[in-house]
TrEMBL record:
Similarity annotation: Belongs to the histone deacetylase family.
Gene Ontology MF annotations: DNA-binding transcription factor binding; histone deacetylase activity, hydrolytic mechanism
Catalytic activity: N(6)-acetyl-L-lysyl-[histone] + H2O = L-lysyl-[histone] + acetate
Encoding gene, per UniProt annotation: HDAC11
Subcellular location per the Swiss-Prot or TrEMBL entry: Nucleus
Broad class of the protein's primary localization: nucleus
Name of the molecule in the record: Histone deacetylase 11
Biological process according to GO: epigenetic regulation of gene expression
Keyword Transcription regulation recorded: yes
GO cellular component, as recorded: histone deacetylase complex
UniProt keyword list: Chromatin regulator, Hydrolase, Nucleus, Repressor, Transcription, Transcription regulation
Highest taxon above the source species: Eukaryota
Free-text function comment from the UniProt entry: Responsible for the deacetylation of lysine residues on the N-terminal part of the core histones (H2A, H2B, H3 and H4). Histone deacetylation gives a tag for epigenetic repression and plays an important role in transcriptional regulation, cell cycle progression and developmental events. Histone deacetylases act via the formation of large multiprotein complexes.
Summary of subunit composition and partner proteins: Interacts with HDAC6.
């Protein structure tokens, strides 16, 4: 019998299946500026959507923090202990107080974090990441209930059950799927569509050999993490070259997603919608235009919803200040195309001829 969890509490129909919390944002003494990731992008996305009158606070679902019991559905106790504050009994016993901060500094790729007090790292770094993880788990259930859901956060695809990395401390994609398998009747097959510029080695390691989960991963073959072992779990692998542009990228995404949905008929799709594919992203190394990112998300939603499959979208990587605006423009476009909303219309799997919403990208 699964343990009780607050993450699966009922959500009123009046709220859209868009999950967010102000607690998502990471700020710790300005050190977040040492990493190219915009640690406040999630709040900026919500601000843009409010400015465009698409959403208000009363329409959002507030994310709850994933508890230790929730995390143990996937993570090993040993790994979670590596991220915890030393016990009081360790104080004065010679146990290295900086050990936990070292683990988090490694995961966040911000070396000075090792010198921060443990309580500060817990409150300012890991608690926001646990809240985003809870948001992904919540959005999984909402997607099955409503046909779609978006967590304005999450997508920690480099974290697996026993290791973190690449700014990913918790395996939210794996957790969302395993929660659905264990707790939601009728969900026994899932597809992960990972379109972040980096290989999603975390969920690949977690689902290695699990035939219930089909993984399609489209990524720059030359960049982090280059995890050859994890690649064995990818059922549809699309390795891109440096500087891949819109036409080739969208063509490969569309063709491979169509085949993926034919090869494996899922009960839910988890879409990792990283914006680090954007031109100028120095960590992604691809050259997709803002319009191309918006069109990509529309294409994924149109194909998946055209197959009458629920879809959960998480926002994942993206290392430029303008990515928040592009994510917001993509969500606006999905709404304009009738692919999301309080009662989305029937969706055709064919490409839409309707022009995209005007983009205002700085």
């Amino acid at each position: 019998m699964p343990h009780p969890t607050q993450l699966y509490q009922h959500v009123p129909e009046s709220r859209w299946p868009i999950v967010y919390s102000p607690r998502y944002n990471i700020t710790f003494l300005g050190l977040e500026k040492l990493h190219p990731f915009d640690a406040g992008k999630w709040g900026k996305v919500i601000s843009f959507l409010k400015e465009e009158k698409l959403l208000s606070d009363s329409m959002l679902v507030e994310a709850r923090e994933a508890s230790d019991e929730d995390l143990l559905v996937v993570h090993t106790r040993r790994y979670l202990n590596e991220l915890k504050v030393p016990q009081e009994s360790d104080v004065g016993s010679g146990a290295p107080d900086a050990q936990w901060s070292f683990a988090v500094a490694t995961i966040t790729e911000i070396p000075p974090v090792i010198f921060l007090p443990n309580f500060l790292v817990q409150r300012k770094v890991l608690k926001p990441l646990r809240t985003q993880t809870g948001g992904t788990i919540m959005a999984g259930k909402l997607a099955v209930e409503r046909g779609w859901a978006i967590n304005i956060g999450g997508g920690f695809h480099h974290c697996s059950s026993d290791r973190g990395g690449g700014f990913c401390a918790y395996a939210d994609i794996t957790l969302a799927i395993k929660f659905l398998f264990e707790r939601v009747e009728g969900v026994s097959r899932a597809t992960i569509v990972d379109l972040d510029a980096h290989q999603g080695n975390g969920h690949e390691r977690d689902f290695m050999g699990d035939k219930r989960v089909y993984i399609m991963d489209v990524y720059n073959r030359h960049i982090y993490p280059g995890d050859r072992f994890a690649k064995q779990a990818i059922r549809r692998k699309v390795e891109l070259e440096w500087g891949t542009e819109d036409d080739e990228y969208l063509r490969k995404v569309e063709r491979n997603l169509e085949k993926a949905l034919q090869e494996h008929q899922p009960d839910v799709v988890v879409y990792n919608a990283g914006t680090d594919v954007l031109e100028g992203d120095r960590l992604g190394g691809l050259s997709i235009s803002p319009q191309g990112v918006v069109k990509r998300d529309e294409l994924v939603f149109r194909l998946v919803r055209g197959h009458q499959v629920p879809i959960l979208m998480v926002t994942s990587g993206g290392y430029q200040k303008r990515t928040a605006r592009i994510i917001a423009d993509s969500i606006l476009n999905l709404y304009g195309q009738g692919l999301i909303g309080p009662q989305p219309a029937n969706v055709s799997a064919q490409n839409s001829d309707t022009p995209l919403l005007p983009l205002e990208v700085p």
